[in-house]
Amino acid sequence: MPQTYTSKEKYTFIIAMFGQNMLYGIISTGLTYYFQSVIFIPAIAVSIIFTAARVWDALKDPIMGSIVDSTHTKFGKCRPYLFYAPSAVFIATILCFVNGIYSSENAVSANIVIIAWAAISYLLWGFAYTAGDVPLWGIIPLMSEDEKDRSGLLSLAKIAGALGGGGVMIAIVPVSQMVSRFFNNQYGNTRGLQYGVAAVAITLTLLSSLMFQLAGVFTRERVRTADTKKRSILDNFKLMLRCKPFRQLLISGIVRSPVNVITVVQTTLFAYYFGDNGRTSYILMMLLIGGANFAGQTFSMLLVPKFTDRFSKEGIYRFSTAFSAVPYILIFVLYLIAPNTLNSAFGIVGLTVLMVCAGLGMGAVNVLTSIMIADAIDYEEYHTYYRPDAVFFSGQSFMVKLSSGVAAIISGIGYAIVGFSGDGVRAVNDALYNGASFKADAQFEKIRMMMFFLCSIPPAIGIILSLIPMRKYALPTKEHRRILAELQSRRQIRNQVTGDSE
User: Confidence band (pLDDT; 50, 70, 90) for 57?
Assistant: First the structure.
């Protein structure tokens, strides 16, 4: 009978995944807003910082995967790293939100220090996060030999991640703006907002780090292989490229990178279009429209393991990908129809429906990617007797981080084109603070249109192109099930010979 995780392990792991994705959301959403709209670092500088750091992060993920897969301890190969990584991420996250305010009135040296601190602290965060992210995903296929249990845990992990990161994405900016009002009278609008964002970010960081720590305390690795040979980083890079099903998933994920533009831009769009950068409350709109997207994602993530019993994974992947492109295109169409009145019933209903549909498609694609990566690990073990769990799941992190870098470049260029950068952002903030309306006033027309364009057209293009590498998938579902049955038989024979119950 296949060995699998206990209920206690499952639920504590899900909590840890929730907390770890909260940390990611604090940085991906909160720090983007903090750099651009709070301390006014120029848009091109922000995009360069994010892109350079993310590309480096993406390249070092397989290196971390190689290190993890070469680790052999009584606790396993992934779990030891989960003991220490949450503390390192906690410290690095706080450092990101302790910085000065960029301004043309500052000395050049002061602005250089501000940009340098932003870049260095973000790079340190990337190192710390990778040390926990790769083993956190890599341990999932090691917790269970049962395909349904593994797919179920991957599905729940994706849901927990979406809720953790999504909850932060919805809440961190509006809550920070509300908290900043306690500082405004004493420190002014700009400095008050800076202190409000920092206070909320640090509080959320502490809470999420404690949850993340649970993965190191309660998980257990059950799947072991006879092959304990250490492989070089170069060997593992070659392995990632040689394994055809993994290579197809990797290329598809990289091509889909522009979909992450919506993650970079949407919080800023909501804050300005619906809330005039915090002058009026917009959290209900965030909860309604953002919640619709997460509801769609969660629903499809729950259904995917059930659908894979009846349909092929590769078929569901292709259908879900194609389906998700349509609502992104229609978001921009909706904006062109009603550019100044999307807070009306027509606009709210339209955006809500489109975000549910987008969530349904992308939620399925996200969880299927993880499930199919786990299948590719089985494929590699079947052919080589080696399980590259951390190396292949580092590919998932590689896709996410490279996508974020590409998204940062696209959004940075878009913002620079319309002048939403540096002192230009400060001028917009001051105008809104003094009573201007972002969604209605003609002076903001180009910025409004650019935000909606970035949240729709680049994601749709990336999604459509990502179908090309998956046309003829190399590991059909039927073949994977045959491989998995053979692997379980091999392990049972080996355990009988060695007397190893693990």
Answer: confident
